Amino acid sequence: MRRTSRRFVSVVFPALVLGVLWLPFSGWGLTLEEAKTKGLVGEKPNGYLGVVAPNASAEVHALANDINQKRRQTYEDIARRNTTSLETVEVLAGQTAIKNTRPGNLIQLPPGQWIKK
Fold first, then answer.
1. Is-contact 63 32, C-beta < 8 A?
2. What are the residues whose beta carbons fall under 8 Å from the beta carbon of 72, sequence distance 6 or more?
3. pTM
4. Domain enclosing residue 33, as ranges
């Protein structure tokens, strides 16, 4: 791995991803942190949020969709700036999100099982 690639992966990437993972979301009554704490959404290995609750409201789905759209835009920008694939950025973001998920919140493990961290 080239030196600049190593620096990107070890320093720049985590900082960018953490900013995206914890985007403030004030357009809805429900915040991301509240949705996570209530077990309505969780972090997936692909870098996006998943709606966990089978009977989640339209508000929960809208929250997850909005955050996922913003994450994808950021991931695309990161991939373009670093001449890497979107999939590589998504996987690294997923690893970072799962690693930084608070105990008690949900994460998805392959093949799609949701567990409390």
1. yes
2. 48
3. 0.76
4. 3-116
Q: Residue 3 and residue 22: Cα distance in Å, rounded?
A: 28
Q: For 98, how many CA atoms within 13 A lie in the half-sphere containing its CB?
A: 19
Q: Tell me the pLDDT of the chain (117 aa) as tens digits.
A: 555 555 555 555 555 555 555 554 445 488 999 999 999 999 999 999 999 988 999 999 999 999 999 999 999 999 999 999 999 999 999 999 999 999 999 999 988 899 999
Distance CA 79, CA 37 (A): 30
Structural domains counted in the chain:
1
The whole-angstrom separation of Cα 105 and Cα 41 is 9
Task: Give the tokens for residue 67.
Answer: 């955050």
**Cα(76)–Cα(38) distance, rounded to whole angstroms?**
30
